[in-house]
Amino acid sequence: MENKRGIPIPTIKRFPSYLRLLNVFKEEGREMASATMLAEELNLKPIQVRKDISFTGIEGKPKVGFEVDKLINAIISVLGWDNATDAIIIGAGHLGSALARYEGFGSYGLRIVAAFDTAEEKWGTNVGDVPIHPFDHLHRWYIEENHVNIAVLTVPADEAQHVADQLVALGIMAIWNFAPKDIKVPSRVVLQRTDLATSFAVLSAKVKRVMESREFNEEDDSW
Amino acid sequence: MENKRGIPIPTIKRFPSYLRLLNVFKEEGREMASATMLAEELNLKPIQVRKDISFTGIEGKPKVGFEVDKLINAIISVLGWDNATDAIIIGAGHLGSALARYEGFGSYGLRIVAAFDTAEEKWGTNVGDVPIHPFDHLHRWYIEENHVNIAVLTVPADEAQHVADQLVALGIMAIWNFAPKDIKVPSRVVLQRTDLATSFAVLSAKVKRVMESREFNEEDDSW
DNA sequence: TAGATTGTTAATCGATTAACAATC
DNA sequence: TAGATTGTTAATCGATTAACAATC
User: Fold this and answer.
1) Which of A39, B89, B148, B209 could form an S-S bond across to B115 if both were Cys, CB 3.0 to 4.6 Å?
2) A146 and A89 inside one domain
3) What pairs with residue B223 in β-bridges?
4) How far is B64 from A58, CA to CA, in rounded Å?
5) What is the pLDDT, as a whole number, of residue B3?
6) pTM for the full model?
């Protein structure tokens, strides 16, 4: 039931949670899962889960729910996690290195094939299984020959735009930006950011609300 | 002009971007910034920037815009980034260590005071300036005495729920969950996640769309 | 069968965007 | 002044949620 504009982004964002939970169910040997059950575990409403699942095209059975296996495969498929995508890390600092070592990417169909850095002392070394090359050696042919689709950008904020420009010039298809900087790329290049500040802002706003309500309650217990 | 439900979450999420850009402006010596200008730099629409700014309570001057300093302070204030919040890191693995070393948190009013881990060989060592303690030594009084509000959860997925339960029992106010696992906490505890899978899912979906449209165009150039 | 769950259509809700008067 | 920009009100858009018939 995919509409012309594609699956809504909020739905896309919930898919990984469904996927993780369904994989747990699968390991436990369950064959069916109902929207009610998924919703309960993920603190969502059943109606929302049903709506989300409808975008995968999978149909359920009244009273029992959805086939776990089918649903897993359908979600993997709509996310495009069934064909492996190769990525390079740009900037082998603490965060870049942590990402290079992260083993969970495999289940997202993401493979980190190399890291690039300007620091000479890192050249030729590895982070986990990932070799670090000189950034200057990153050429267009490398990207093409190795079918690198994604650059994971973990350079300092003040270098992010400049490095992104170079990546774009090299023909990269997508940039996953972890630098705390909003960068600009041509519209043909896919840009996604993971911004700690954004996430922390939401946390801060929630904490602030709680603290203020506590102060209020302490000032006046009659409420 | 804050409504009863508070500032919308999408607006909260854009505030850090405004803040970073305004700080650049400030460094450059600019005193005023218009919504038009901010929108241009951040790929937003001017109307949206004006609406967002209205939630800070700051008023601008037609034709010139908003006072950079005032706006910076107002955003910091609504985010609660003016009073420092102390946090501990739970799980000093690669990601936890990278976060412990991250210097950008200071500008969010976030201070990492310690890390806790179950691995004996890490006890007594430091990551950056952050000391690592045995997880078993994390007691309720430590949290209270050190005014620790936030626990940054960077443990493996299969331990996340269990560790979160312990943190809740110790009276933690907020959990910032980096583990690839959806955890449940009582509603009085603030929960915020930073989920790589979620972010990558959006990136994947966009990449998939681009690849499919390219295939389509290659199959039939007449369009 | 009875009743839980699905799938769809319509209503609601909240954020974005448009329109435009006010203003410096 | 002229015109760019603000601030507000109303319209639009898109996602969530409600309602309910279908069904196993």
Assistant:
1) B89
2) yes
3) none
4) 54
5) 36
6) 0.94
pLDDT tens digit sequence for B147-165: 999 999 999 999 999 999 9
Which H or E run contains B218? helix B196-219
pLDDT tens track for A173-214: 999 999 999 999 999 999 999 999 999 999 999 999 888 887
Q: Looking at the structure, tell me whether residues B107 and B29 fall in a common domain.
A: no
Contact flag, residue B34 CB and nucleic strand D, below 7 A: yes
Residue at the smallest CA–C1' distance to nucleotide C6: A62
Of B62, B79, B96, which marks where a domain is finished?
B79
Across the interface, do A16 and B201 touch by the CB < 8 Å criterion?
A: yes
- Chain B, nearest residue to A84 by Cα: B204
In a mutagenesis test of the A interface, which of B78, B159, B202 is the best target, namely the one with the most A β-carbons within 10 Å? B202
Q: Which residues contact A211 (CB under 8 A, 6 or more apart)?
A: B80
Cβ contact (<8 Å) for B206 and A174? Answer: yes
Residue B4 has pLDDT above 50, yes or no: no
Residue of B nearest to A108 (CA): B197
Q: Which residue, A79, A97, A129, sits at the end of a domain?
A: A79
- Are residue A185 and residue A100 in the same domain, yes or no? yes
Same domain, yes or no: A25 and A95? no
CATH number of residue A176's parent domain: 3.40.50.720
Q: Do both B181 and B167 map to the same domain?
A: yes
pLDDT value of residue B220: 55
* CB proximity A62–strand D (7 Å threshold): yes
Residue A217 touches chain B, beta carbons under 8 Å = no
| A133 Cβ contact partners less than 8 Å away, ≥ 6 residues apart | A114, A115, A116, A117, A123
Cβ–Cβ under 8 Å, residues A60 and A87: no
Asked whether the beta carbons of residue A190 and residue B210 sit closer than 8 angstroms, the reply is yes
| Number of structural domains found in chain B | 2
State the Cα–Cα distance between residues A31 and B100, nearest whole angstrom: 41
Residues B204, A80: C-beta atoms closer than 8 Å: yes
Q: Are residues A39 and A108 both part of a single domain?
A: no
What residues of chain A, 25 to 54, have a C-beta less than 8 Å from chain B?
A: 41-43
CATH number for the domain spanning B49: value is 1.10.10.10
Same domain, A113 and A162: yes
| Closest to A199 in 3D by CA, of B205, B190, B48 | B190
Amino acid at A194: T
Residue A204 domain-assigned?
no
Q: What is the pLDDT of residues B13-53, one digit of tens each?
A: 999 999 999 999 999 999 999 999 999 999 999 999 999 99
Q: Touching check for A203 and chain B: CB below 8 Å?
A: yes
Both B92 and B117 in one domain: the answer is yes
Domain that holds residue A148: 85-198
